[in-house]
Design goal:
Length: about 400
Amino acid sequence: MLFQRENQRVSASDILQSIAAGNEVKMFKCAITGTLDINRLLEKNENFDLSKIKVESNEDRTTISLSEPIEFNDCVFEDNIYFAPPWDKPSHVEVVFEKDAVFNSSHFMGQTRFAKARFRGYAGFDGCTFERIAVFRDTVFEGSAMFRTVVFTGYGLFNDAVFKKDVGFTNTCFAKGGNFTDVKFFDRTDFSGVYAMSKSVPVYEDVWFARQKYGEDETFWRFIKQAAQEAGHYRLAGESFFNERCAHLCYRFFGHDFDELSLTQKLLKLAVGIKLLPELIFGRLLFGYGERPVRVLFASLIIIVVCAIYYASPSAMIYSRLDSEVRQLSVMDGLYFSTITFTTLGFGDVHPAPVHLPTKCVAMIEALSGACLMALFVVGLSKRYSRG
């Protein structure tokens, strides 16, 4: 059976009655009046006949399975909509959408709650506007989930949600903020063009991307970076920039379609990706894209110590102007010579023996490394602490 309406005002009770009857619901440009609360199906005084739908109950939870598609295109929900358990009983009800659930271009004027729901088909919320809080906490999306060009005028809460297929938040606005704490993304993820209007940064502790090595988290970190910059959290913006650049490097190396390539294409792509090795070593690991200046200090210290050990070894030949002869340096003298060579000071009291090419080569390499690393350190400090 099909419960279909177009350009009409439909009461929430009629929709609930149709759901209880196991009908497919299809609405287009309708105004939904009253609170659409799935919990009413379980209230004894409502007298809904639930024999046509699957309802399973145990001691602490009731699962309502909707086996037919639900479609609300370009509709207006004038009151609250609850496909979730009551606030005071957060684990009392679980709603399972067995088929597609589409709410594209709809306007939710009241509270919207899909907490602990399970979407086994396609979940479509493209072009929606949520005037008040929208709760998708603990929701499991087994099929594709699309929230493109959505406006969350209130808070958008997705904490503990699970997205098992591709998900899109393209050009979506979080006016007051969002929560992505403990969210798990298992497939392709797109946050391109997502923005926040308030001076608040979305919460995202322990967000997890199964395809992180393919760069699927790049657009998410770009969203966090822009939100943090607008809110004046420049340290957080820098950390997000580092994550964004790391994700972009992974994307350039693998690409989103790496799993779909043949073995030959994969090997060819990896071979071409060797050209990214300098960026991996110097940009990401050493310099941290300007957000890890301490790494430069550690690298400098390692080079100074290693070269000092060489200068103090019998393998090196160092000429001392004080003694007017070539001699083996002590550990302290080797550290001294290594430091002045790294910093390109070159006092001239000790220098490599003119006839010993290996010592001169080590000194040249150390001097070049010192010039580059000191420049990187200054750039990193100015980038990190001169924002605002």
